[in-house]
Design a protein that fits this description.
elongated, four-stranded antiparallel beta sheet, alpha+beta
Length: 170
């Protein structure tokens, strides 16, 4: 079975155009990150309150999100099996907040005022920014050590130049 009539493709002919397109895409991504003030960090890294709500009847994420007072910064997503009717609400850290009960009361009042449905708060937790800094540091070290492991494996299995090329391409 022949897929190509002439399998000799001159890839090097287009190397500079491909490099220019790659640099353009990378530059656009970096510009976007810088113009938005860095990468958007979730509650796990920046700190905040996490609420797990259990509804009596199925409720959409959009209905819960639109009922929240500051829905632009809240993350709303379903939790567990769809039949459980559970939704998680992640709210960013507000000022020097140290009490999850205050934010939970605000969310509860807003959802009841919007008549989203009957629900109970299953859990409420505060995630501090210190935990996020620890997660970030551990993530960076995990990435560096995995790249080092790949480098060592390819170096011993093949050649050092292949290993450096694989890490740089990653």
């Amino acid at each position: 079975m022949h897929i190509f009539d002439n399998p000799n493709v001159n890839f090097l002919k287009w190397r500079w155009q491909a490099l220019a397109v790659s640099l353009l895409i990378i530059g656009g991504g970096l510009f976007t990150i810088i113009s938005r003030g860095g990468l958007p960090l979730g509650v796990d890294f920046s700190g905040g309150t996490v609420l797990r709500l259990k509804f009596e009847k199925p409720t959409t994420e959009g209905a819960v999100r639109s009922a929240l007072p500051d829905s632009g910064n809240a993350v709303v997503q379903t939790y567990g099996a769809p039949a459980d009717n559970e939704i998680i609400v992640r709210l960013p850290l507000l000022g020097d907040q140290t009490n999850a009960d205050a934010q939970a009361a605000q969310v509860e009042a807003a959802l009841k005022a919007a008549n989203v449905g009957n629900f109970t708060i299953q859990s409420k937790e505060i995630v501090g920014p210190v935990i996020g800094e620890d997660l970030r540091a551990k993530g960076i070290w995990a990435t560096i050590s995995s790249l080092g492991g790949i480098l060592l494996y390819i170096w011993f299995r093949f050649r050092l130049t292949f290993a450096v090329g694989a890490i740089v391409a990653t």
